[in-house]
Specification:
The protein is mainly α. The chain has helices spanning about 1-25, 30-60, 65-85, 95-115, 115-130, 135-140, 150-165, 185-200, 210-225, 230-250, 255-270, 275-285, 295-305, 330-340, 340-365, 365-390, 410-445, and strands spanning about 170, 175-180, 180-185.
Length: about 450
């Protein structure tokens, strides 16, 4: 059985390599028929990877729930692909495919680790995918998103501040609302309001006095998250604001000042919070405190090293040894069972998403949407950097989730909303370009 798992693991790596290859080759040229063929091949790759993973998992467990989960996921993904393409003929098929591929990877890994968590994740993802079908419609119909910048900012700040009064502490951070054993993080949704706030105010005025006021409100968000000990979230908010600010003003001195601020804030956090000191020491030398704060990091490194390039085979690892493997350290489990090469391809798929986000930002004419797409892109890819960097000991662990893959209903739902907003802007940009092309053709006639 182990040999079969290893053999099919190689096949999964090869198929995922093809999928990743298509992510970048599809960007070459403007032949729509060729691109549609590539998107079709990507979807075939998704189907094959999902099928192989569930076959192996069923053979390992003989749990009929695996079959039910497989059928439900296949039905959901085909439904989403069909409905999205019916409603939005101009949508980005690459963004849609990548979202489905990452969700699929997360779900079959969660089935392997914790079936109950996988069932919850599937239910939340399904609800999010269905509801978010309407987000691109709203973006195309409502033209005044850029008029509510201060409202976005103050509503977001009030939400995360109020949460602190009623939140429970989980994993060192006091930003979780728990209702009847169901925990969620409101800050995951405030991320989107925060990007809207920054984009709306930066697209109007970039004078120094205006920037000081906007920066004060942005800093208030970060300060509240620090008080809640959500240092990963605070860092994501800060870096997102910094990059949008630099692009909007063209002043790279802000970038230098921001990097110095990060260093100072990191030093203060080290002095103030014990769990930050523990994570920093675990990053420096986890082996010396392996029985205490370094246990999680060392087990993560053991798992990645054990998996090697091509993994032990799906279902063959000992992934449950790693604490909170289903959320913060799921990338370690992927590398142990499917290999470091598979993990690398996941990072390339994330990079493909980021390239599309930035591409939309560069092409769209509406300044608010331009900065929104950039902000969401930076927020998305920086979260990936923090999640993976902590797992491989490149940086201290920050406790953030891997987008669309890690267990966490709040995280998955917020990222699906982000992708839907990006789709809305992509469709809007396509429509505007077609109108402009039509006007140019009319003038030539």
């Amino acid at each position: 059985m182990n040999t079969i798992a290893i053999l099919f693991g190689y096949i999964m790596v090869i198929v995922f390599a093809l999928y990743t290859f298509f992510c970048f080759t599809v960007l070459i040229g403007n032949n729509e028929e060729r691109k549609n063929r590539i998107f079709g091949r990507q979807r075939l790759c998704i189907f094959l990877i999902m099928s192989i993973a569930h076959i192996l998992l069923y053979i390992k467990t003989y749990d009929f729930t695996v079959i039910i989960m497989y059928v439900l996921q296949i039905a959901l993904y085909f439904f989403v692909i069909l409905i999205y393409q019916i409603f939005y003929k101009k949508l980005s098929k690459l963004v849609l495919n990548n979202m489905i591929m990452l969700l699929a990877t997360g779900l079959f890994m969660l089935e392997r680790i914790n079936m109950e968590a996988a069932i919850k994740q599937l239910a939340i993802a399904a609800a999010g995918l269905v509801v978010c079908i309407f987000i691109p419609v709203i973006i195309n119909k409502f033209k005044y998103f850029d008029r509510f910048g201060w409202i976005y900012g103050f509503v977001g700040l009030i939400l995360i501040a109020v949460v602190y009064l009623f939140a429970e502490e989980i994993g060192g951070a006091k930003n979780w609302i728990v209702i009847k054993n169901v925990a969620f993080q409101p800050s995951e949704f405030v991320k989107i309001l925060y990007v809207f706030f920054v984009a709306a105010l930066m697209c109007r005025v970039t004078k120094f006095r205006h920037i000081i006021v906007v920066s004060a409100l942005a800093a208030a968000h970060v300060l509240v998250l620090i008080i809640e000990k959500d240092l990963g979230g605070a860092l994501i908010f800060f870096v997102t604001y910094l990059f949008v600010l630099v692009v909007a003003t063209g002043n790279y001195l802000y970038l230098a000042a921001g990097l110095l601020s990060v260093g100072g804030a990191g030093y203060l956090a080290f002095q103030l919070f014990s769990h930050v000191r523990t994570r920093f020491m675990a990053w420096q030398d986890p082996w010396s405190i392996i029985d205490a704060g370094g246990y999680q990091v060392t087990q993560s490194l053991f798992a990645i090293a054990t998996g090697g390039l091509f993994g032990l085979g799906f279902g063959n690892g000992k992934v449950n040894i790693i604490p909170v493997v289903e959320s913060d350290f799921i990338f370690s489990a992927i590398c142990e069972e499917l290999g470091g090469v598979y993990g690398l391809f996941i990072l390339l798929v994330y990079l493909s998403c980021f390239i599309m986000f930035v591409n939309i930002s560069m092409k769209i004419s509406n300044t608010f949407f331009k900065y929104t797409s950039l902000g969401l892109g930076v927020m998305f890819i920086f979260q990936v950097f923090l999640a993976v960097g902590g797992v491989i000991k490149f940086i201290p662990s920050t406790g953030v989730t891997l987008p669309l893959i890690s267990y966490g209903g709040s995280s998955v739902l917020s990222v699906i909303i982000m992708f839907s907003i990006i789709q809305g802007m992509y469709v809007l940009n396509k429509s505007e370009n077609e109108i402009l092309d039509g006007e140019e053709d009319g003038e030539e006639r």
